[in-house]
Amino acid sequence: MSHLQNKKSLALKDLLYKALLLVGTVAVIVYFLPREGKFNYEFDVNKPWKYGQLIATFDFPIYKDSKVIKREQDSLLASFQPYYQLQKETEKKVLGRLKENHQDRMKNILPSIDYLRYIERTLKEIYSAGIVSTDEMSLLQKDSSRSVMIIEDKLANPRTVQSLFTVKEAYEYLLSNDTVHYKRDILRQCALNDYILPNLTFDKERTDAAKKDILSSYSMSDGMVVTKQKIIDRGEIITPETYRILESLRQEFIKRSDSIEQQQLILVGQILYVGIWILFFILYLYLFRKDYYKRRGSLSLLFMLIIFYCVLTSLMITNNILNVYIIPYAMIPIIIRVFLDSRTAFLTHVITVLICSITLRLPYEFILVQLAAGMVAIFSLRELSQRSQLFRTAILVILTYAAVYFAFELITENDLSKLNIRMYTYFALNGVFLLFAYPLLFLLEKAFGFTSNVTLVELSNINNDLLRKMSESVPGTFQHSMQVANLAAEAAIRIGAKTQLVRTGALYHDIGKMENPAFFTENQSGGVNPHKNLSYEQSAQVVINHVTDGLKLAEKHNLPTAIKDFISTHHGRGKTKFFYISWKNEHPGEEPDEERFTYPGPNPFSRETAILMMADSVEAASRSLPEYTEQSISNLVDKIIDAQVDEGYFRECPITFKDISTIKSVFKEKLKTVYHTRISYPELKK
């Protein structure tokens, strides 16, 4: 009862995890999706309308062209007078400081009191006219302002710009206004520029209000399109007037989408759209890829890739960063193809591209180009084992991008001079970024517990430390492993299993024999057999321990889990038959402790581990044949593999009877080639 409850509890937790994964993925993707409305039509003057008939679904004004608006508004503002505030306190402070300085030091410079009265009188005249800073005067001249409004005691009076002084002009006027009675040299000694300060300050608030008041009566449109009015039909040439209507529709569409109600509708639509695709993806895994569905490492990788690419695309679109075509979307199917399979790689790529497409103004060409590139990436990279393969794939992806986009441009543009050359630069950058898949595979492999073909190829190099040590310490076992690897790899090729995985697993399946090499017949020499001094139970334990010792060595040398699976399953839950049968023959009528003669297992659970079990048993048994004939080899292969099937070693792995029949044929062919009879060469008679 408790076992059943535990099973239900685990199932409930797993279902909750999948539900949280679905909700979390949708929430993260939708959070980053841009929510402004998109006008998904591309049009230009004197080009044909390439979409269906366009009917107005709401009333909207026909806005004037931006150049026309600017010209007409400039005309309205030609006589506009900006507002300046007169600061009377400036004049009072300056004149007060002038009197103080006259008592302190100017009295010794000026020849008479008339000079002081002249300076006071002229300064009052200048301040009354108004002084502006040099920068303000430059702006007035730039705007071609002829007059300004001077605010004095809450009243605004017009004054011409010519009548205003800059600081420099005021100083020059003070020195040269009356050179007959007052000498410049004497006035210059008085540092009169200290008494000339701007007393007119720009009143931005009042100026903007006045401008707004003038422009409020200006109409930005000069026509109206009513609901259900036909705007344009497919194939019609876009005239300047039609272009203005379409541009007005685009502006009004974006303006309407900025409302809170529209934002809420867009959000609901995005949640539904993304949720549907993610739900379809989970259903695909549940129905067709149960092993990925149950393994959290696989799920985490798949959903991490979808989320990462969708968020990256949204951020680039929202912040207007470069161009999304430089993002290497083809890296998604490459990574998934290397770690999982082609079908899952393609479906993940399709779903990611479809979700990303809703962020773009022109989703159709994006979908076409990315799907083509993804398919080429999958076709060109069946098994990644060398860096050159990825480089070739990157070249093919670039060419696919360019070819599909060029074809799409020819269909839509009909003019070679209008081709978008910049896009081909983006495609080249995309291919360069695609090369980063190689180092990224290593990081993902460690993070999610996968084993790539690149790692398997590196491990199968017989010059690495563990295999080299094996060839030196247990040469017989090493030769056996090499023969098993060849047999198993050929069988894997024939039934469509993972060839490199089988080959590498075969090389390492017997590494545990390095701990006690002399106890295995292939490593014995000189007729010495240490099993003669042991009981059958002890001998069985020594032989069985090569599995557990192999797993310890694999752990010590950080071998991947996929390789450890071959070590633990190559004998499954089988028995050490030589010692088991010998014990039973010596103890008739008694039953032994079977666990002492049984390997720890488990039995093979994949096609690859099943192939290795068959190849290991057949290769080892083939060495004991008294003669090598076609019939003897065929009988041996059939006898061993049929016995394994009868004992139920392959009940838990997805291997078919057809696969087993094919594997038998391969083993027979290979063993006949290995043990073929050579002709005897004649000796030369003397």
Largest sheet: 4 strands, mixed
Helical content (DSSP H or I, runs of 4+): 55-70%
Q: For the record, what CATH class of the largest domain applies?
A: Mainly Alpha
N-to-C span: 90 Å
CATH architecture of the largest domain: Orthogonal Bundle
Strand segment count: 10
Structural class: mainly alpha
Task: Give the CA-based shape.
Answer: elongated
Number of contiguous helices: 28
Strand arrangement in the largest pleated sheet: 6-5-3-8
Mean pLDDT: 86
* CATH topology type of the largest domain: Hypothetical protein af1432
Rg calc: 45 Å
Which regions contain 5 or more consecutive residues with pLDDT less than 50?
A: none
Q: Assess the beta-strand content as a share of residues.
A: 5-15%
Number of domains: 3
Can you give keywords for this protein?
3 domains, two-stranded antiparallel sheet, 28 helices, elongated, four-stranded mixed β-sheet, 5% strand, 10 strands, Hypothetical protein af1432
Question: Describe it for me?
Answer:
With about 675 residues, this protein is mostly helical. It folds into 3 domains: about 1-35 and about 260-445, no CATH class; about 75-215, no CATH class; about 455-675, Orthogonal Bundle (Hypothetical protein af1432). Helix content is about 60%, strand content about 5%. It contains 28 helices and 10 strands. The protein has helices at about 1-30, 65-75, 90-105, 115-130, 135-140, 165-175, 185-190, 205-215, 240-255, 260-290, 290-295, 295-320, 330-340, 340-355, 365-380, 385-415, 420-435, 435-450, 455-460, 465-475, 475-495, 500-510, 535-555, 560-570, 575-585, 605-620, 630-645, 655-675, and strands at about 55, 60-65, 85, 130, 145-150, 155-160, 165, 200, 220-225, 230. The strands form 4 sheets. A 4-stranded mixed beta sheet has the order 6-5-3-8. Strands 1-10 form a two-stranded antiparallel sheet. A two-stranded antiparallel sheet has the order 2-9. Helix 3 packs antiparallel against helix 4 (about 115-130), helix 14 (about 340-355) runs antiparallel to helix 15 (about 365-380) and helix 23 packs antiparallel against helix 25. The longest helix is centred in the N-terminal third of the chain and has 31 residues, at about 1-30. It is elongated.
